[in-house]
Amino acid sequence: MANVLILCAHRPKRSPSQRYRFEQYLPFLEENGFKFKFSYLLSEKDDATFYSSRNFLAKVFILIRSVFIRLKDSFQFKKYDIIFIQREASFLGTSYFEKKAFRSGAYVIFDFDDSIWLADTSPGNKKWEWIKRPEKFFNNVANAHCVIAGNPYLAEKARPYNKNVVVIPTTVNSEWHVPKTEHRNKKLITIGWSGSISTIKHFELLVPVLLKIQEKYKNKLKFKVIGDKYYSHPNLNVEAIEWKENTEVSELNSLDIGLMPLPDNEWANGKCGLKGLSYMACGVPVVMSAVGVNKEIIQNGKNGFLVSSDEEWIHVLSALIENAELRLEIGNKGRETVVKDYCVKAHQHSYLENFKNAKSPR
Predict the structure, then answer these.
(1) Which residues on neighbouring strands pair with residue 148, listed in sequence order?
(2) How far apart are CA 285 and CA 179, in angstroms?
(3) Is residue 229 part of a domain?
């Protein structure tokens, strides 16, 4: 039995990045001889504080406590066969703990799924950006025996600093995310977006388009935001709900159309298409910005739609709103794509292979 220490920011089942990058593989890895222990920095109580724009002193306390958590971990590094680091070991702009892990004798696996070498803090934490020093990413990559990247673009950024870089795409569990069309509203078309407080800014990019769609179709549709229960807009008929594990699939299945708007920039090029994949797994037709890995996942007009302008958004959304058969056809093809290329079963052996490599001499 190989002992694995997971260094991450959030408790299990809290963060989409953690859930879809590695947590859903843990049962399979445990069946194959690996034992896991989580060490995370934020408790459930911390969430409301950490992502708000207030509570300065409470945030300072959380940051100080996080350092002590990692210091305590560092004294235990030698007890583990593998140390798995998701995105970063510390909130601070230092690679100290990654270096300690690398020098401990444990096999270090570094996993990431975003352009984390760029500054992209949540709105409530902009004033803290100077602490993060995101360029530490390159040191973190160098201080690992294996790097797992979420898409080829991310892998190319890591390869100059580490020769052992593999691509394992962000995946969904196609046996959990299943189509359930009975959850869809028979009277109103529901156009939805799934995300978090830190990514709601991407939904807001599309609000001008959605207002035009709302005016065009008036009482025929509504909008839904999953993940930021506090979101509201004075002119948009939008329902905002929090993300919950036990309701995630039913909420996704309540959508008739799924949205994934993104800006066309370096940060967006690092995204791994998770929102789109989660819609597709549930048979929900998806409309995505034509950036980054989205262009690899989607065959435009076959298993989803890629758009690059407000006019294209309006055209595609109108076509889907007006044609139930098109929604069904695109949704079914999207589901097929996920089952074939982007589900847990399609990549679980790749994860296992990289963990087994830790037993090799190094």
Answers:
(1) 111, 166
(2) 11
(3) yes
Helices (H) and strands (E) in the chain, counts: 17, 12
The total of other beta-carbon atoms located within 10 Å of residue 320's CB is 21
Burial class of 54 by CB neighbour count within 10 A (0 to 12, 13 to 18, 19+):
exposed
Structure tokens at 252: 């996704």
Number of domains the chain is built from: 2
DSSP per-residue string spanning 225-288:
EES-TT---TTS-EEEE---TTTHHHHHHT-SEEEE---SSHHHHT---HHHHHHHHTT--EEE
Categorize the per-residue pLDDT at 187 as very low, low, confident or very high, splitting at 50, 70 and 90. Answer: confident
pLDDT tens digits for range 128-137:
565 778 889 9
Residue 176: inside a domain: no
Domain membership flag for residue 185: yes
Residue 237 has pLDDT above 70, yes or no: yes
Q: 150 and 250 in one domain? A: no
User: If pLDDT is split at 50, 70 and 90, which confidence band does 55 have?
Assistant: confident
Please provide the size of the chain in residues.
362
Hey, how many other C-beta atoms are within 10 angstroms of the C-beta on 55? 15
What's the predicted TM-score (pTM) here?
Answer: 0.90
* Average pLDDT for 299-310: 98
Question: Taking 60 as the threshold, does the pLDDT of residue 123 lie above it?
Answer: no
Report yes or no: 255 and 177 within 8 Å, Cβ to Cβ: no
pLDDT at 221: 94
Are 148 and 110 spatial neighbours (Cβ–Cβ below 8 Å)? Answer: yes
- The residues near 323 (Cβ < 8 Å, ≥ 6 apart) are none
Q: Per the domain annotation, does 93 fall within a domain?
A: yes
Q: Which pLDDT score is estimated for 361? A: 43
Residue 343 CB partners (closer than 8 Å, separation 6+): 171, 172, 173, 174, 281
Q: 120 by DSSP, 3-state: which?
A: coil
pLDDT of residue 167: 97
The whole-angstrom separation of Cα 280 and Cα 103 is 42
Per residue in 2-40, pLDDT (tens digit) is: 999 999 999 998 888 899 999 999 999 999 999 999 999
* Domain at 328, CATH number: 3.40.50.2000
Query: Residue 65 is part of which domain span?
Result: 2-171+344-359
